[in-house]
Amino acid sequence: MRAFGFLSFGHYGGSPAQGGLSARQMLHDAIDISVGADELGVNGAYFRVHHYAKQSAAPMPLLSAVAARTQRIEVGTGVIDMRYENPLYLAEEAAALDLIADGRVALGISRGAPEAADRGWESFGYTGSTDPRGADIAMSKFEVFLQAIQGHPMTRAAAQPYMSDAAPHAPLRIEPQSEELLRHIWWGAGSRETAARTGSQGLNLMSSTLLTEATGAAFGDLQAEQIDVFREAFKEAGHTHTPRVSVSRSVFPIVTEQDRMLFGMRPGEDSDQIGIIDGTRSTFGRSYTGEPDQLIEQLKADAAVQSADTLLLTIPSQAGVELNLHILESFATHVAPALGWKPNTEGPVQGDPV
Asked: Which of 138, 214, 264, 295 has the fewest CB atoms within 10 Å, i.e. the most exposed one?
């Protein structure tokens, strides 16, 4: 690990009298947390995307606002659910975001996690999937998206192109184009099979917060195996650039008595969890809570944290700006330096050569 960012689910709702957030407040808090994190040297601000739920849903306006208000921090998603997306419109938005952010983009995309809606992507107009999870349409749309951001023709000009310098019937690509955007695309992988495909495509790997595997091995060891599979597939495919890899963890440093009251260990949080997701036995990662020396020792023993270049800290975003910046500052001050962290003032994050 040489970089860390925060991953926000963007929860909102509940009674304001009891501390509940409106959608407006959640979005403004997300921007303010990002600005504060940028000033702390944090390397990334990432947001989950869930539909039909009181959580972050439409990432591009938020990421554009964050990019415009910050200088160095990477902005991204973890992850965009491709089942719900128009691949060509997403290609336009992603390129525009990359240009606004001057390349500070880490766009995580995947088949998507379980959703609140029953086949909700169909209500967005994307029908025809024969997979109960919609993985087939997610992958086919992702392939179109990759072609579009690489400048491949997506249609042809009209016989008399209006407001265009294109020749009649000439092939047309999506505009705008960002030349480096392909290097800023991550796939959210939950299995070794998906990790291998991601590596062969030359993309970056965003290892999921849950893995659709349960072999009895520790979550960190399963992820480390997944990362090894990714890198081997990347190498075998002949890619010559340097890929990025991220993993997510919940980490709460206890440096004050208030921290102890708020984050004191709860039963079961100090071990991996096993559950059923989409009918598949899956492994969920544990939470790390403790004093800095304990956290350093535990995170150094986490094989995936050591193997990845970037650690994403899941934060309780609904708890407000001040508390979340305190968590990030505590990690940056008391834990991250011992793990090899380089703040964003030292330049963009670099992956490990394969």
From this structure: 264
